[in-house]
């Protein structure tokens, strides 16, 4: 039974007493007055399952539809089903859903629950979102890459095209700064969760997480009431825990994103009499309500994808759950009654967990986002109102890949081929594989296999061609070695790709080289050549076009291949491990190769190598000598050698070191004086950073370490001082000072210390003031020497020395050097260089 009026269709019989009802009037008022509103409501409050229906008849909606974004397919389907159930309908009526390759909408649909990629596609095709009056971004606290992108695009649409479009950002947990950063009002729902008792282990668990979780589930079934929801990091751990719980008095069900729809629905439905244990990944943290759950077992781990911009590779990383995720998980036990949460770590560990994961936009592979921005007409991300702007270095990495995929031109604008990639709901790599090859049926099979789990058992080797052969054998009902369940999922996905490509399935065994050629379309930087001397332990080691080393597991059938196209590998520390690849015809590399002039330093021989190389990235297919080496290439290669091996490759004579010390001293003494006459930075770090500028002109024909050692660096350093700084340097930091005898004594400069004037004491007789540099600002440090040139006193106060210490020094010097005069009154005695008779 529905309560129907002009403003409300809240299904009270299906969602009785939901806490969100208390703030619905406030949400209505906020959306009527503001284009962007933030709602914070804890899990179970009803923000996803009741509020959207309440808003369908708001006057400002003016009969338009509502789109609600859900980050995950499982949640999108479940939420749509729950909303439709509340109206007594099936999904596809008033409430519809769209996920990848699945659309359940009709002409009657007013509220669509969609996944993130679907919303982005809709915005790309219709930036004005015609017929849509409200977009709801649910579970925004997860800060997924696509949610951040959707919000940025929607805010731009509101500012430029649709001032009547409303956006409601909903979050279970809230960054307290979010409303202010968005300039949006905040509506808060206190929720009505039941108390959850949290229990910790006494010590850190030992062994595999699936074993620890299975033991905790058994204990919970014995001690507690209700169904159990257990969190594990991935499918492998879920399957292992399920096997260990085969004898418990409960139905044990998995729940993860790639699970078939019927099995997902079974895990989410209320139990039919007996108890239920649901083993889930982090998809069950939010949005999904699993009726009957009174106990949560949290394994404490989460699996996330991490992108390494240095290698261009993404890999799945298992790590500690964050504190906010742990709270979300525990809250699942208190949705319908008081519950218990077993945390499989000690209480002392809880405050040490990360508070939350950083927004995905700061860590993820940004190639999909970069292509979307180019398609939107904003290749420069700075043009959009981000919550957190994507890091420029990662955007640069993404642009380089997209240029290799022919998706962007040199200015970063989208190409016709790039626009075609946006029509395929997958990563640009796989979209390029699907669109650029000459065998679309094979492309559909390969793309599906790359997106799904491996259908072959462990130890089957890395050859992707064997997976294609297994898929086609299963499809043709021939014998095969694959997992039927996985092959069924792969075939469903391949069928979707074949539908988009308008091709029929192929049942013939694949050409392995054709599989390799397709892989290079998706992963151009992962074309690989066997390393030279690949025998014995070195067999199976390869160099990728991107410059990274990688190796096959020992004994793999592909180890003897001269070339590979690599699909999946881990980044590794020094050398990655190849998990999935296909043989590559070296001729395919030759077709991509181009001659390049290469001038590089060979650190082993200490010589400059100049040659032309036929290359694909880091792969060298052929070489020939290069004559007439361009000066800029020579300078760049030698500069790289000096940076790699250090400035000690160059010879800095004392005059050069003193020149540097004089300039550096003035930089320290006169900071910020005269912008036009700023003293250059001649520190080691600065010189290494600017080698091409100052050293390049001095290199001449240098080709070896010995040549570099003979380069005269002093003129090169002096050339860094523009006029009139050389004259100013000589005035403020002279190389010599004249003393009373007329001698010109060399100064020794040390950065951060006063310059040293080492002078025979007798040459300063009669001089009262300490000599200075820096225009009289800096007294030098006097090293007063004996007639034999040995230091007898160090001072910066000559007057004080004559008045006090001199007389102690005089006693010693008179005994050592009797032929030299040591007057009682040094003030009046004439300075002298040599000896005189006593009394003279």
TrEMBL record:
Database matches in NCBIfam families: DEAH_box_HrpB (TIGR01970)
Keyword presence, Transmembrane: no
Pfam assignment, any one: DEAD
Region annotation Disordered: where it falls in the sequence: 818-840
Compositional bias of kind Basic and acidic residues: 818-827
Domain Helicase C-terminal per the UniProt entry, residue ranges: 216-377
CDD domains: DEXHc_HrpB, SF2_C_RHA
InterPro entries reported in the protein's UniProt record: CON_HrpB, DEAD/DEAH_box_helicase_dom, HA2_WH, Helicase-assoc_dom, Helicase_ATP-bd, Helicase_C-like, HrpB, HrpB_DEXH
Top-level EC class: hydrolase
Superkingdom as given in the UniProt entry: Bacteria
Protein name according to UniProt: ATP-dependent helicase HrpB
Domain Helicase ATP-binding, chain residue ranges per copy: 28-177
Lineage: Bacteria, Thermotogati, Deinococcota, Deinococci, Deinococcales
One of the record's GO molecular function terms: RNA helicase activity
Keywords, alphabetical: ATP-binding, Helicase, Hydrolase, Nucleotide-binding
EC number per UniProt: 3.6.4.13
Gene3D superfamilies (UniProt xref): 1.20.120.1080, P-loop containing nucleotide triphosphate hydrolases (3.40.50.300)
UniProt key word Transmembrane: no
């Amino acid at each position: 039974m529905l309560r129907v009026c002009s403003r409300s269709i809240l299904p009270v019989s299906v969602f009785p007493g939901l806490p969100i009802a208390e703030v619905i009037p406030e949400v209505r008022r906020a959306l009527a007055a503001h284009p962007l509103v933030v709602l914070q409501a804890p899990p179970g409050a009803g923000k996803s399952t009741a509020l959207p229906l309440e808003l369908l008849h708001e006057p400002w909606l003016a009969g338009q539809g509502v789109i609600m974004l859900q980050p995950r397919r499982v949640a999108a389907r479940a939420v749509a089903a729950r909303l439709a159930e509340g109206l007594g309908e099936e999904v596809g009526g008033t409430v519809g859903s769209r996920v990848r390759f699945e659309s359940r909408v009709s002409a009657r649909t007013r509220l669509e629950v969609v996944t993130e990629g679907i919303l982005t596609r809709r915005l790309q095709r219709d930036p004005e979102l015609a017929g849509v009056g409200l977009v709801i971004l649910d579970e925004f606290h997860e800060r997924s890459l696509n949610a951040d992108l959707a919000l940025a695009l929607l805010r731009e649409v509101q500012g430029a095209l649709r001032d009547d479009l409303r956006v409601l950002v909903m979050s279970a947990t809230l960054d307290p700064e979010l409303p202010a950063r968005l300039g949006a009002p905040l509506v808060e729902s206190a929720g009505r969760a039941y108390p959850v008792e949290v229990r910790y282990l006494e010590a850190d668990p030992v062994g595999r997480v699936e074993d620890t979780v299975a033991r905790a589930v058994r204990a919970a079934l014995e001690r507690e009431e209700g169904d159990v929801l257990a969190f594990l990091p991935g499918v492998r751990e879920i399957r292992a825990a399920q096997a260990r719980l085969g004898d418990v008095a409960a139905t044990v069900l998995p729940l993860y994103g790639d699970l078939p729809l019927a099995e997902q629905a079974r895990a989410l439905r209320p139990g039919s009499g007996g108890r239920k244990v649901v083993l889930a990944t982090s998809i069950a943290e939010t949005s999904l309500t699993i009726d009957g759950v009174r106990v949560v077992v949290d394994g404490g781990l989460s699996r996330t994808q991490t992108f390494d911009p240095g290698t261009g590779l993404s890999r799945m990383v298992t790590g500690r759950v964050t504190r906010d995720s742990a709270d979300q998980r525990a809250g699942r036990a208190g949705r319908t009654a008081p519950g218990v949460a077993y945390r499989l770590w000690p209480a002392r560990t809880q405050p040490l967990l990360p508070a939350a994961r950083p927004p995905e936009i700061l860590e993820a592979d940004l190639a999909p986002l970069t292509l979307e921005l180019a398609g939107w007409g904003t290749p420069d991300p700075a043009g959009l109102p981000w919550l957190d702007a994507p890091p420029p270095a990662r955007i640069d990495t993404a642009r380089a890949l997209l240029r290799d995929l022919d998706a962007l031109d040199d200015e970063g604008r989208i190409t016709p081929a790039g626009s075609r990639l946006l029509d395929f709901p997958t990563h640009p790599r796989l979209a390029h594989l699907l669109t650029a090859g000459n065998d679309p049926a094979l492309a559909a099979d390969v793309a599906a296999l790359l997106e799904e789990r491996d259908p072959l058992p462990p130890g089957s080797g890395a050859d992707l061609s064997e997976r294609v052969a297994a898929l086609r054998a299963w499809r043709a009902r021939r014998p095969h070695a694959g997992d039927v369940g996985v092959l069924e999922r792969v075939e469903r996905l391949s069928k979707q790709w074949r539908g988009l490509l308008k091709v029929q399935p192929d049942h013939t065994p694949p050409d392995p080289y054709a599989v390799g050629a397709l892989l290079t379309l998706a992963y151009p930087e992962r074309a690989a050549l066997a390393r030279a001397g690949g025998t014995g332990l070195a067999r199976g080691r390869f160099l990728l076009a991107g410059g990274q080393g990688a190796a096959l597991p020992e004994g793999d059938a592909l180890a003897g291949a001269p070339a590979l196209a690599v699909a999946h590998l881990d980044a590794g520390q020094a050398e990655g491990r190849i998990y999935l690849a296909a043989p590559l015809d070296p001729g395919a590399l030759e077709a991509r190769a181009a001659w390049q002039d290469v001038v590089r330093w060979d650190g082993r021989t200490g010589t400059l190598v100049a040659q032309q190389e036929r290359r694909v990235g880091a792969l060298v297919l052929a070489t020939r000598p290069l004559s007439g080496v361009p000066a800029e290439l020579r300078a760049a290669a030698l500069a790289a050698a000096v940076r790699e091996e250090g400035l000690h490759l160059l010879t800095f004579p004392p005059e050069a070191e003193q020149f540097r010390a004089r300039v550096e001293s003035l930089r320290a003494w006169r900071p910020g004086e005269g912008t036009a006459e700023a003293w250059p930075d001649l520190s080691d770090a600065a010189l290494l950073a600017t080698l091409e500028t100052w050293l390049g002109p001095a290199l001449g024909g240098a080709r070896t370490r010995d040549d570099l050692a003979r380069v005269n660096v002093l003129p090169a350093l002096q050339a860094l001082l523009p006029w009139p700084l050389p004259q100013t340097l000589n005035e403020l930091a002279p190389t010599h000072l004249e003393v009373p005898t007329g001698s010109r004594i060399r100064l020794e400069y040390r950065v951060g210390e006063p310059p040293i004037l080492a002078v025979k004491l007798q040459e300063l007789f009669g001089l009262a003031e300490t000599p200075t540099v820096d225009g009289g600002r800096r007294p030098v440090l006097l090293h007063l020497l004996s007639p034999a040139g040995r230091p007898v006193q160090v001072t910066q106060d000559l007057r004080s020395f004559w008045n006090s210490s001199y007389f102690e020094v005089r006693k010693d010097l008179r005994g050592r050097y009797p032929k030299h005069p040591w007057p009682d009154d040094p003030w009046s005695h004439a300075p002298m260089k040599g000896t005189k008779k006593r009394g003279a």
